[in-house]
TrEMBL record:
This is DNA-binding transcriptional regulator, MarR family. Pfam families: MarR_2 (PF12802). GO terms for biological process: response to stress. It comes from Paracoccus seriniphilus. GO terms for molecular function: DNA binding; DNA-binding transcription factor activity. SUPFAM superfamilies: Winged helix' DNA-binding domain.
Amino acid sequence: MTNDQHHDEAGGIDLELFLPFQISQLSSKLDAQARMIMARHGNLSLPQWRILRIVAMGIACNSTAVRKSAGIDKGQFSKTVNALVSQGYIRISQWPDDQRQFRIELTDKGKEHHARIAPDLDQRQRHLFAALTPQQRKMIFPTIHALAQAAQSIEFLDNPDDTD
């Protein structure tokens, strides 16, 4: 492919050729779709929902594991957890073996909210998978995991340790 084939008609770079741009666009659309669904059930933010979902599904219950599973940075996680506690969706307690950690548990209100919204988001998951061919369904998670792994490194650069 020649360099000219990477440009649009106006001479700018064709962003549709850039994988990170495409993934960012998809993420924005998925987030918007999730917010529309969640707005039907109250005013939880996506990070709040992710924390509720992770704890409700038993994926994790200690603060670090929940934060990492949700993909939320430490500052946002702290604010989000505090909001969930103050709104009565979760309760926290000190982790027995590590005072830097805390256990997150759903309150009755959190369990009820999860039970109301989870079916709609599960239906959304089925809708998204239905948009894929059987071959695409087999490849989606290995592809996502491979890209996530590749995104953790800059070793592909000629001088990855150089900084400006």
